[in-house]
Design a protein that fits this description.
This protein is mainly beta and 92 residues long. The chain has one domain. It is built from one helix and seven strands; from the N terminus they run E-H-E-E-E-E-E-E. A seven-stranded mixed sheet has the order 1-7-6-2-3-4-5, covered by helices on one side. A hairpin with a 4-residue loop joins strand 4 and strand 5.
Length: 92
Amino acid sequence: MATISLYDAIEQMRKISERKGSFSFSFMSYSIKSGASKGIVEIDSARMSKGNPAGMAYGEYLLNFVDLSTGRPFRCWKPCLMFFNQQKIQLK
């Protein structure tokens, strides 16, 4: 299975999003508020969206995206990313 670093995956996500393309990815959900996870989330078609407002707590650790199949905006923790376009993401 092909692997990619977290930072390379995020950079590719940005480039694809700038071209109005889409990508698939999965991540482990986590709520800092409840301290719990609801398991793995798989997104078949996504595009990154605008960043977090200046001064937002933990903003630099969050990835904002739109699930193109529903049109709904979401965010996830960058360190919880697991796969990007069928490549395993490694934290390096």
